[in-house]
Design a protein that fits this description.
Structural class: alpha/beta
Helix content: 25-40%
Strand order of the largest sheet: 10-9-11-1-12
Shape: flat
Number of domains: 3
CATH class of the largest domain: Alpha Beta
CATH architecture of the largest domain: 3-Layer(aba) Sandwich
């Protein structure tokens, strides 16, 4: 029987997600509905559903947006070709790309301009990866696993650089980068790692929590990369872990034999979902629910100039 719930900290929304969600909210306030959003603004079904109820319309492609309408680009970033097509359709655009993703795009452009082959460490099909590849598709190769490094074929082994998706496993990425350095001793990389502070902090918080819990529940949607990485971190350490979109998706058998349950949430999951899960545990008679540790995050990103200008 569960006696105690420990909450990892930090957890939940990061600065990039807060910025992206507020961007859509401001756009709706200032322009009225509908406001079109290319892809999910962030990878969380509850956030998307809430914004839909307010008048946001989510589309898979900018070509689905009526000519001349307003479209917001999601936090994951877009390829230059998307911006070109949006301009051709005379769309009014607001770019809610996370500044840390924008940094990776800038690195890719710089390496391409300097003649490097760019190794992008990331997951195929993820929107962030597609956007980054789009900066220099003819010069970029994708690596998903450390095993992929041995098969890499590049025109000049002396001119290889790497960038990474921002929401990866820190440990797994370090392994891949180490393998790249061994294979290409002249490897260039970013001065500061591309994995974002929020991804790193949430994985670190989970690692600190794991010795004290029997099972870890991660609140996040199935398409949230950083949430899935939190599950993996726990499982690699030998602790059972499960991804749950909301408390009503919880399989009670997951916690049936646990005395202490750990809870965290991905960077795109609102804190309200954690509160709802805690309420569920209280309804089961759990009285000990507390933060295990607290590392304060004070990162803040300014809203896109378009919504700041309109507000002014």
């Amino acid at each position: 029987m569960v006696k105690r719930v420990l909450l990892a900290a930090p957890r939940g929304y990061c600065a990039g997600v807060e910025r992206a969600v507020e961007t859509v909210e401001r756009a709706l306030e200032q322009n009225g509905a509908p406001v079109y959003v290319r892809k999910q603004i962030v990878h969380n079904t509850h956030v998307v559903r809430d914004l839909e109820e307010r008048g946001a319309i989510f589309v898979d492609s900018e070509e689905e947006v009526p000519e001349g309408a307003l479209v917001v680009f999601s936090a994951h970033g877009v390829a230059p070709s998307v911006r070109i097509r949006a301009a051709q359709r005379h769309l009014e655009t607001i770019d809610a790309t996370c500044p840390l993703v924008t940094k990776v795009h800038a690195e890719a452009r710089r390496y391409a301009a300097e003649g490097y082959t760019i190794v992008l460490v990331g997951h195929a099909g993820h929107e962030e990866v597609e956007g980054t590849i789009g900066e220099a598709p003819e010069r970029t190769v994708l690596v998903e696993r450390v095993e992929d490094v041995a098969d890499l074929a590049v025109p000049d082994p002396e001119r290889v650089a790497y960038v990474t998706q921002t929401t990866l496993s820190v440990d797994e990425t370090n392994e891949i980068v180490s393998a790249l350095r061994e294979r290409f001793p002249a490897l260039h990389g970013p001065a500061k790692e591309d994995i974002c502070y929020a991804t790193t902090n949430r994985q670190r918080a989970v690692k600190a929590l794991l010795p004290h819990v029997d099972v870890l529940l991660v609140i996040g949607s199935d398409n949230s990369s950083n949430s899935k990485r939190l599950v993996e971190v726990a499982r690699v350490a030998g602790v059972a872990s499960y991804l749950v979109d909301d408390f009503d998706g919880l399989d009670e058998s997951w916690v049936a034999g646990a005395e202490t349950v750990g809870v965290t949430s991905g960077a795109s999951a609102p804190e309200s979902l954690v509160a709802r899960l805690c309420d569920w545990f209280r309804a089961q008679g759990v009285t000990e629910i507390e933060n295990f540790s607290f590392e304060r995050e004070n990162v803040f990103f300014r809203l896109p100039v378009e919504v700041r200008r309109s507000a002014a």
